[in-house]
Design brief:
Blueprint lengths: L2 E6 L5 H13 L3 E6 L5 E3 L5 E3 L2 E2 L8 E6 L5 H7 L1 H12 L3 E5 L3 H6 L7 E2 L13 E2 L4 E4 L2 E4 L5 H13 L1 H11 L6
Parallel strand pairs: 1-2, 1-6, 2-5, 6-7, 7-11, 8-9
Antiparallel strand pairs: 3-4, 10-11
Helix pairs in contact: 1-5, 5-6
Amino acid sequence: MGTVYVFFANGFEEIEAFTVIDVLRRAGMDVELVSVIEKEEVLGAHDITVVCDGLFDDYKFDDVELLVLPGGMPGAGTLDKHEGLKALITKTIAKNKKVAAICAAPMVLGKLGLLKGKRVTCYPSFEQYMEGATCTGEFVEVDGNIITGNSPASAMNFSFAIVRELMGEDKVEELYEALGTNGWK
């Protein structure tokens, strides 16, 4: 299995980013934290600083298994302005690899025209950017190689959906057991 890359810009939503990273690492995935700003320290929307593993330009992304775009504003807006990231997303989708975006971040995919004909979800009021998609309002939607989540409240469901897509239901069940979910899914 390749690498999961999670992208950071100032104003990212901490719950969405950290929950995904934690769950995916518990599942045994290789996860890299990538800054799209000019420094490795990135400040979240609620004043939590993360030190990323590297800057966008430090990576070749030859081993992409999945790209993850956390939401939060203005973080998702900064992701949407990063030309290198948008090119990488388009290339990743063309290779039939997966891209996951939550909250405000699905707008990046929508503006690229990658959601046409897909069932997606996003933070309420961002539906306007889901060009050609059916917005369901569900916590999580998986349609082909696109995984979307609607809000910080769906971060665990979103994370488990990613694990399910990449590693299967048995791994999700193993995580449920390890995390003591007592049947919550």
